[in-house]
């Protein structure tokens, strides 16, 4: 195997630094420096859980890049998608910015997008993880990582239990005890689904079909039962609909196309 490109290792060092920064997030007392997950800055218990988890992920990604492992590609694709979504959602949630911050914002966005997707571009150039015959599995593992992210988000939902952050079950936003019970259970389901995809378990297909059906049913139920005051920007609503249905149904379709190759414990990208 050829020696990994120096540029790939440079990205590995950058992600290693980011990992250290996120691992140290819980030590920062200021709520203005908490970890940002899906556009919302966390604090307290949520920050204590999410920041180290992301730090570990970034550290694993850095190691995979340094060693040019094939599974670095789905990790990079998932991370790049997450960064883009996180920046978009954060800009929707933040208040009016001062002039210095407005000037700093575009630079940060350019750097974040450049680093996250730049590493992916280098992997494609070096053909890391893009050997023939594994494209479907790369996509599936990317979906698995995104489902893991959603599992983490659901797990943290009870720690931010408000009328606008509770878990939504068949169009009904939960609060209190119901939210504290259902959200972690759904997080466990998504974590199991993600694991079954990554390890190519046969159970991944029925789980994927069930989840895809649930997502569509949940979106329809929400549109019919949406409480007063719950409004979304039309552009954001359309994007959310496309991503939610695309990811859930897309994973199910890919699993169906690969159904004959699903075997317990098989992991060709390792």
Report on the structure:
It is a single chain. The protein is mainly α. Mean pLDDT is 83; it is low at 97-101. Strands 1-2 form a two-stranded antiparallel sheet. The chain has a two-stranded antiparallel sheet with strand order 3-4. It has helices spanning 6-23, 44-66, 72-93, 99-126, 135-156, 176-198, 204-225, 234-257, and strands at residues 36-37, 40-41, 168-169, 172-173. The chain has 2 domains: 1-131, no CATH class; 133-270, no CATH class.
Sheet with most strands: strand arrangement: 1-2
Please state the average pLDDT score. Answer: 83
Number of domains: 2
Order of helices and strands: HEEHHHHEEHHH
Intertermini distance: 15 Å
* Main sheet makeup: 2 strands, antiparallel
C-alpha Rg, in Å? 19 Å
Structural category is mainly alpha
Low-confidence stretches: 97-101
Q: What sort of overall outline do the alpha carbons produce when their principal axes are compared?
A: globular
The number of distinct helices, counting runs of at least 4 residues, comes to 8
- Got a strand count? 4
Helical percentage: 55-70%
Strand proportion = under 5%
Q: How would you classify the quaternary structure?
A: single chain
